[in-house]
Each structure stands twice: as C-alpha cells, then as structure tokens.
Task: structure prediction
Amino acid sequence: MKIVVISDTHTDDIDKLPSALITEFNDADAILHAGDIVGYKLIHQIEHINPNVYAVKGNMDPFFDEKLLPKKRILKFDEVRVGLIHGYGASFGLENRLLYEYDDVDIIVYGHAHKPFWGVLGDVHFLNPGSPTNNRYTPFNSYALLFIKGRNFNAKIIQI
Result:
C-alpha cells in the first residue's frame, strides 16, 4: 500500500502544487493531508484524481466545520493504526505533545512545523512530510510516501 502524505500546502488550488506530487496522487492507495490546507477547493480537486483523501484541520483552517475537517483522526491501513493531526504550539516539543493525543497508534502523521521528519519516540513513529509549497524552515519543499504491508511500514521524505 502506497500512501502520499502532505501538509501545510497553504493554497486553494491544485495548480499551485508541484507536478511531481500530482503524479504521485494518481497511483496512491490513499492521500493524507495533515492540515493548513487554507482552501477546501484543493481537497475537492485532489479527490477528482484520487477519492481516498483523508484530511484534518490545521491552525490556518479556522473556518472549516469539524464535520468537514476534524482536528484529528485515527485511520487503519492493513494492520497499522495511523493518527492524523496537524499539531499546535511551538515546534520544539511538538512530537511530545502529540503523543498525548492518541492512546494506541503505530504512526502519528502531523504537520505544523514545516520540517520533514521520520523518526521514533517511545514506541510511536512520527511522520511530518514538511510542505510541498512553503519551506519556511528548510531549504527545500517536500512531501512523504508511507508504505504499509500488513503490520510492516516505512516512510520516505521526498525533496522537491
């Protein structure tokens, strides 16, 4: 299973996303957006390419209804439980704060910091794809690919 992971797109139009990312959407089993979408039109446009889109509300998405964009989700792909959340507060200590948001997940996918990260804290893996459009704190834009098969998983940060 191949899952495309994005966050912090800060755009209302798919034409503002890199073409490499659009190509990834075509053959993905699912797409996760960890918030700061800014315009829900973008989610609709991605759904026209691939209907398996799961998104959450970021701090820059204040006008979206909780039913449309919840603050957090728990998703299950094969035998892997994934927590999807944007994040909040300072970048320092963000992963520690997010640990308290979920009781039983294998991976927490998050955004907010605009810094790509794939690592482990305790027994939980953390995946922040960075931003494909707004590289505030890194010299490159990025997204991530999450691969899941049964109980096994791995991720890769893609620089663009």
User: Anything to note?
Assistant: The CA atoms of residues 87 and 112 lie 5 Å apart. The chain has a mean pLDDT of 94.
